[in-house]
Design goal:
Blueprint lengths: L8 H12 L7 H7 L4 E10 L5 E12 L5 E8 L4 H17 L5 E8 L7 H15 L8 E5 L5 H15 L23 H17 L7 E5 L3 H12 L3 E7 L2 E4 L6 H11 L5 E4 L2 E4 L3 E3 L1 H5 L5 E4 L18 E3 L8 H9 L3 E3 L1 H4 L2 H15 L5 H26 L3 H18 L4 H6 L1
């Protein structure tokens, strides 16, 4: 019995389950549940702009599966946000939470817009309007929001505050990734990048990778990509290329990541520099496109931007030995087949970028208990979970002679299937 996916990005996301279904025995009920999202919501958000005009934005929220607990997932602001994309992200989040053994299901949300075109006051009105539209469908025991592409702690704070206004009570656990002053968790901002670093550090010895001899290229120098770059640079990896939405920079000798980050924060430009204090000097480098970065001959390639970056069209030109997916869905299923044939090992998003949702879980727990952890405690708990999940997938992949991605879906399906089975399946009722 197989899934019957819809068209578009969700169809491609669903194809990953086909391989996994060969290695796991599931009750028919589990597959029937996983064919369809729990709920899909499309909303119109009217916003009064600074010039007095009215503009209506399209927003979405999808709760894919809540078998293992309330749904959990970010909200992204991006011009390409669509219901198909949000449904796919909620689908992936379902499996990510299961891989990390978190008591959540998968959810996701988004608004279609260019956030850079709005003022801060317009963004606040938009964020609060989004919560006005979906407030009846979310809650700390129903669906929990978090930051994603082009959303941040301040936006999450606006969303939580608006929910509090509607509910007439303080409900911190409805949103994670909030500012610390509003009940956020230490270590949440850096969690995705730090979690990815923990996965790489756990895997590197198994692959015989020595940091000083390992070259790395990172597509995407946003929150997750830049934090991961800093962590890898500190550990001694040679990062030869990074990029943002405008393009990239390359230097075979390696880049000084702290200086580049300082320059990006100061000027919003990505440039190869070396800084001594506040004085930065441009160093020799080559300007490259995001597409060219993906094709560099490096040991580790890290797509940390958006989905569908490596496709059937460019997969044959990928020369990296290993790929760690920090973005959600950066590799299509067709590209997966080509990369596998070339012997390129892919470590999937449902493992590598799970640090964010894991620390969001910690924040949710802290909000509900009223007991808050130090950054050191958060890091220790995150490391335990990331290392265990990485070891679990590595050993499962070795045992069944399957890819790490397929191992992730097998493990997640087993856990979701078990949760469905204990509620009663067809076999239970037929025997009864």
């Amino acid at each position: 019995m197989t899934l019957e996916p819809q068209s578009g990005l969700f169809a491609d996301a669903s194809l990953r389950l086909e391989k996994a279904l060969q290695y796991v025995t599931l009750p028919e009920d589990a597959l029937e549940y996983l064919r369809h999202p729990k709920s899909s919501l499309s909303v119109s958000i009217p916003v009064r702009m600074d010039n007095g005009s009215l503009q209506v934005f399209q927003g979405y929220r999808v709760r894919y599966d809540d078998t293992r607990g309330p749904t959990k997932g970010g909200v992204r602001y991006h011009p390409k946000v669509s219901l198909d994309e949000v449904q796919s992200l909620a689908f992936w989040m379902t499996f990510k939470c299961a891989v990390l053994n978190l008591p959540f299901g998968g959810g996701k949300g988004g608004i279609t817009l260019d956030p850079k075109a709005l003022s801060k006051m317009e963004l606040e009105r938009l964020s609060r309007g989004y919560i006005d539209a979906i407030a009846d469908f979310i809650g700390p025991d129903v669906d929990i929001l978090a930051p994603d592409v082009y959303t941040n702690p301040m936006i999450m704070g606006w969303m939580m505050d608006q929910y509090n206004v509607i509910q007439r009570k303080i409900t911190r656990a409805v949103v994670t990734g909030k500012p610390l002053a509003m009940g956020g968790s230490e270590g949440r901002d850096e969690a995705t990048g730090v979690g990815a670093f923990m996965v790489i550090e756990t895997i590197a010895p198994k692959l015989g990778l020595v940091p000083a001899e390992t070259t790395v290229a990172i597509q995407g120098f946003g929150n997750a990509g830049s934090i991961l770059a800093i962590q890898l640079w500190k550990a001694g990896y040679r990062i030869v290329a990074v990029s943002d939405s405008q393009g990239g920079i390359y230097s075979a000798q390696g880049l000084d990541i702290p200086s580049i980050q300082y320059q990006k924060e100061s000027t919003r430009r990505l440039q190869a520099v070396y800084c001594d204090g506040s004085v930065c000097s441009v160093v020799d480098h080559q300007a490259i496109s995001n597409e060219d970065l993906l094709k560099l001959e490096v040991d580790i390639l890290i797509p940390a931007a958006l989905e569908n970056q490596i496709t059937e069209a460019n997969a044959d030109q990928i020369k990296a030995k290993y790929i760690f997916e920090v973005a959600n869905g950066p590799i299509t299923s067709a590209a997966d087949t080509i990369l596998d044939r070339k012997g390129i090992v892919v470590f999937p998003d449902i493992l590598v970028n799970a640090g964010g949702v894991t620390v969001s879980y910690f924040e949710w727990v802290q909000n509900r208990s009223g007991l808050y952890w130090s950054e050191e405690e958060v890091q220790q708990q995150l490391q335990k979970r990331m290392v265990k999940a990485t070891e679990d997938l590595w050993h499962l992949a070795q045992k069944k002679a399957i890819s790490i991605r397929t191992a992730g879906y097998v493990l997640a399906l087993e856990r979701i299937g078990e949760a469905i089975a204990v509620k009663g399946t067809r076999d239970y009722y037929v025997r009864a």
